[in-house]
Amino acid sequence: MDSKRNVNIDVIRIVALFTVFIVHAFLNNGYYEVPMEGWYMYLATYVRQLAMICVPLFIVITGYLQSGREIRIKSTYANLRKF
């Protein structure tokens, strides 16, 4: 097993991935067109709010993985031209 691999980052990535699926499921199932009535809608809203943690999790993962990287402005902008 690779001793440099951090399994905790993989666990956070999996949680973030599942929460992205949940957020997109709410987008595609008509949740936003239904009026807020009944306990089911309150539960769905609570789950959606919990799932909104997906974007901050990906930002934290990216920051952690890029923390040891040396910043080279010239090569960074040169690589953007390739796209």
Describe this structure as you would to a colleague.
It is a single chain. This protein has 83 residues and is mainly alpha-helical. Helices cover 66% and strands 0% of the residues. The protein has helices at residues 7-28, 39-51, 54-65, 73-80. The longest helix is centred in the first third of the chain and has 22 residues, at 7-28. The radius of gyration is 19 Å and the shape is elongated. The model has no long low-confidence stretch (mean pLDDT 86).
Helical proportion, percent range: 55-70%
> Which secondary-structure class do the elements indicate?
mainly alpha
Indicate the overall shape.
Answer: elongated
Low-confidence stretches: none
Question: Gap between N and C termini, in Å?
Answer: 35 Å
What is this structure's SSE topology?
Blueprint: H1 7-28, H2 39-51, H3 54-65, H4 73-80
Helix pairs in contact: 1-2, 1-3
Concise synopsis of the structure shown:
With 83 residues, this protein is mainly α. The chain has helices at residues 7-28, 39-51, 54-65, 73-80.
Distinctive features:
single chain, 83 residues, mainly alpha, 66% helix
